[in-house]
Write a structure and sequence with these properties.
The chain is of the alpha/beta class. It has helices at 21-31, 38-52, 56-64, 68-82, 87-104, 115-124, 140-146, 158-161, 168-178, 192-201, 229-235, and strands spanning 5-8, 15-18, 108-111, 128-133, 154-157, 185-189, 205-209, 222-223. The strands form 2 sheets. Strands 5-4-1-6-7-8 form a 6-stranded parallel beta sheet, sandwiched between helices. A two-stranded antiparallel ribbon has the order 2-3.
Length: 244
């Protein structure tokens, strides 16, 4: 097999907010008296990935809570319940946490380690690079602000084509745009439900980046940092370029 392109997810894969929203939310809930075990934090994080991967829960909430403020209030209640709160506790805590986050959550925008080195190495090998995100609006200017736009041949927002991961259409649109076969593309993402499932269903080769160990046995290669990607591809069946 010859890998001719590597596509990436954006949020959670190339960049993160530090602290993450889920970490800040859980820490706030803990300060308000909710006892949260590490296992509950992990469970809530898994659920968050599932929810935002165009889940049926998110679809129903969007219909039931068309008002944005009401939607986020309901989401906060869901989130705090996943952290172990009862429904009664959630109804009390969620508005307090939401209000505190609105006033105080100001994360630093951070690139994950190893990106520049990995991108440069892939480019030297003639590998095409792209970004596929479930964002609503185009984000090439944001990539320029992050200092990484120059590496990519394309950047695709789901809202541009009205197709959202894990739907395979967004992946197929990207491979047509880059004129590569799905089997010759590696897709790197942090969300099992959106990235791994979606890429696999479209025929791409998913790689899960999972520094926190959230997902057990995802059925695809797993890395904890971007610096591990090229060594992974070199020692697996996913050979880079024309070297193997």
């Amino acid at each position: 097999m010859t890998i001719r392109a590597v596509f990436y997810d954006l949020d959670g894969t190339l960049r993160i907010g530090r602290p993450t929203g889920r970490q800040f939310f859980a820490d706030c809930a803990a300060r308000l008296g909710l006892v949260i075990t590490p296992q509950l934090r992990r469970y809530a994080a898994q659920w968050e990935h599932y929810y935002w991967a165009e889940s049926s829960e998110k679809e129903v909430d969007g219909l039931n809570f068309p008002d944005e403020r009401a939607f986020w209030t309901n989401y906060s209640q869901r989130q705090v319940m996943k952290l172990g709160a009862s429904r009664e506790q959630a109804e009390k805590l969620a508005p307090q946490i939401s209000a505190f986050m609105a006033t105080n959550y100001r994360p630093e925008d951070v690139l994950l380690d190893g990106l520049h080195e990995t991108f440069a190495n892939l480019r030297v090998r003639g590998i095409k690079l792209g970004v596929i995100s479930n964002r609503q609006q185009p984000f090439i200017e944001y990539l320029r602000e992050l200092g990484i736009a120059e590496y990519f041949d394309f950047a695709l927002a789901a809202g541009e084509i009205n197709a959202w991961k894990p739907a395979k259409e967004i992946f197929l649109h990207a491979i047509r745009q880059m004129d590569v076969a799905a089997s010759d593309v590696v897709y790197v993402g942090d969300n099992y439900y959106a990235d791994v499932v979606g890429a696999r269903n479209a025929g791409l080769n998913p790689v899960l980046i999972d520094p926190d160990g959230l997902f057990d046995a995802p059925g695809c290669p797993v890395i904890q940092s971007h610096g591990q990607l090229i060594p992974l591809l070199e020692r697996s069946e996913l050979w880079l370029g024309n070297e193997k």
